[in-house]
Amino acid sequence: MERPVPGGLPGEKEEERVLVSEKSWRPCPKARRRLRAHRWLYQEVGDILVLKYLSWTMYPMALAAFSTGFSQSITPYSGGSGIPELKTILTGVVLEDYLAIQNFGAKVVGLTCTLASGSTVFLGKVGPFVHLSAMAAAYLGKMRTSVMREYENKFKQNEMLVAAQAVGVATVFGAPISGVLFSIEVMASHFAVRDYWRGFFAATCGAFVFRLLAVFNSEQDTIAAVFKSDLKIDFPFDLLETFFFAILGVVCGLVGCAYLFCQRWLLAAVKENRLTAKLLATDKPIYTVLVVLLLASITFPPGLGQLMASRLTMKEYLTSLFDNRTWGVLVPNASSVADPPGVDPRGLWQEWYHPSATIFGTLAFFLLMKFWMLILATTLPLPAGYFMPIFIYGATIGRLLGETVALLFPQGLRSEGDPHPVIPGGYALAGAAAFSGSVTHAISTALLVCETTGHLGHVLPVVLAVLVANAITQKHQPSFYDGTIIVKKLPYLPRIRSRHMVSYQVVVEEFMERQVVALAKGGGFEEVLVALDASVNAEYPVVESAGSPTLVGTVSRAQLVAFLQSHKHPQAPSGEKLTTMGTLGDNCAIEPIMLQLSPWTSLHQAHHLFELLKLQRIFVTRFGELVGAVSRVEVRGGGRNKGVTKEGISGGTRRGQAPIPPPLSPCSCEERLRSSPTPSDDFWGPQGSPPQGCRPWQDWGS
């Protein structure tokens, strides 16, 4: 039987290229073809329906359960896409566990098993690739500082992460330009232009190497577009079709709003439900098995799966949806039995054809079922990406609208001149960009579809659809990643609503923290003890004196602990060889204040400074005197109470402090002090922080 060579011309025999495919140095082409084990196993079991069902469901269940169990046993931070956490890290919040090297290994193994599950679970890899790139960049940065013996610079680390986030998107789609732009839109509130070329250089190298692997693996003859299309260039669309592309943008925007609302609601409901919350807390693999069993049963090809083209892979979904032919015209000539997928790329559309339903019925049924299946899949606690599924979902919306327009206007929209039929594949391009852009609040998806398909003929209607969809979604819903941040309660600053002028009227004095623990420049041992016992801040403001609260600088907590360790406690025995005198100003390096706010600074300005400079806390002064402080908690609370930010993002406690544990009994603390009058590392703990909840230590023994 003559079988076309993948990537070759129809009718080209495989024997004609046997020297190229079998005698080249490319490793194990036959073994690599069998890595699609799910489809191969389903075809090899024969016509026994029970065996087919077991092969279709047990395979993804086993892989998904292993992915969840393995990744969660290594580190609980390897689940999901990782983009919400990376987005939080890029704002200046320290989440070191998400960039740990052990998380890298867990993510790689878990993602491999997730992708091997096939399109049954319908999950992608964009988010995990971004997370993996960020972890690799963080590790390389640490290696650089250790080899060069330099001080670890947080600004250099941030530059590495900015470049890494572009690599993840660019490698998946082989699109370096849109990869950089998409990463900036999705993960950065502010972007330094000096990092622009770094991102492009890293993204280009990553995309080049990734696409080069496709050539080495005999998948392509040269570096080409990932989803290469054959859409017409001479007359891609009629000018009157612009109206339908705008309608497509409206549809994608409305569906995107519904998707974001339901996805955020389900994530919260799963955590609040007693049964699912218990499974996710103690038995995550069991929850994964149950969800995958449901998804696999619905997509079983002899069942409902035959109405959803469930035998196609993720790449074949997009290849079929971007077909330049009109399926409604091809249906009368379709054979009664479709060829197995993967034999002829131009015959993939037959997977969408069913004798008992029209093309419109299968596309509509796919959209209806995948809407809640996509949302349910996002609750799985395994490494996975969510961009590719919504990309395919949007392409299906566009394909359905394009086939409808082609049915209504079979000769095109023009009544005069040469007929120019409607190309539904162009609507699939616009739908993929519009829906994925609306869900992620990105415009660069318009360029992404052009780079991934190598087609620029529809760039203007695609941009129009993306803009319309974004205008609707950004008005009513936070993005997919912002919604995940809300549910996970990550310490991320929400964006201020652009049209709310109230943010300019709300001033810092209305929401700042007024009870600030400050130290006098001439303070001694007891004053430092009181300050460390009163709060767990990383730095403390230093004023001129108790009677003159003029702010002169800040001192770190580590320096205060060192000050206490080098001085004698007032109640210590006289035999100790430690300094008894000395003030804070004489023994500690007081850092000058580089930035401070006025009580009349607006919320909008304070929010902008926190985002731009990645600040954690700023002190507020009136005529040079300390009157308060503002941290990220106050900024979030001030915007939420005044209704000028997106949905409130909780997380943390008041003043950014950790919850105070129950008080220790005075006798235990005092007994420790009597046994070790001089504060030591064992007494103060690994972080240099005294026991919390005790009464003031200067009162001990009274």
UniProtKB/TrEMBL annotation:
Pfam families: Voltage_CLC. The keyword Phosphoprotein does not apply. InterPro entries: CBS_dom_sf, Cl-channel_core, Cl_channel_volt-gated, ClC. The chain crosses the membrane at residues 161-184, 196-216, 237-266, 286-305, 359-380, 386-409, 421-443, 455-472. It comes from the Eukaryota. Keywords: CBS domain, Chloride, Chloride channel, Ion channel, Ion transport, Membrane, Repeat, Transmembrane, Transmembrane helix, Transport. GO terms for cellular component: chloride channel complex; plasma membrane. It is found in: Membrane. It is a multi-pass membrane protein. Residues 638-702 are annotated as: Disordered. Signal peptide: none annotated. PANTHER family: CHLORIDE CHANNEL PROTEIN 2, CHLORIDE CHANNEL PROTEIN CLC-KB. This is Chloride channel protein.
